[in-house]
Write a structure and sequence with these properties.
Elements lengths: L2 E2 L2 E2 L6 H4 L8 H11 L12 H14 L3 H18 L2 H8 L13 H4 L12
Helix pairs in contact: 4-5
Amino acid sequence: MARIAGVELPVGKRVDVGLTYIYGIGPARSKEILRKIGVSFDTRIRDLQEDEVVKLRETIDQDYDVEGDLRKEITMSIKRLMDIGTYRGLRHRKGLPVRGQRTKTNSRTRKGRRGAIGGKSKR
């Protein structure tokens, strides 16, 4: 089982799919990495040679921000926006959609469950 960037890659998957289990690597970046080191996309993770795993590990560590470093960088960017008081930072702080979506009827994912509306008794 290959362990890259602190993530156990699933043994039965193809390498290009398996690399996407690492936070910060999607399908396009996965294929770019494999082209760079010269590994076929069709290879299964269990069939990787030890030197190929080492090349993968080194390439990802040197050239890409992944996992903890990337999460930290994103968190710090959001914190910076909140600290300087930008509109986007205020939206993050309030837990509302940041990129201009409507909020009257949608955005339940960001806002959470609907709260009860007080003062609406049937008399």
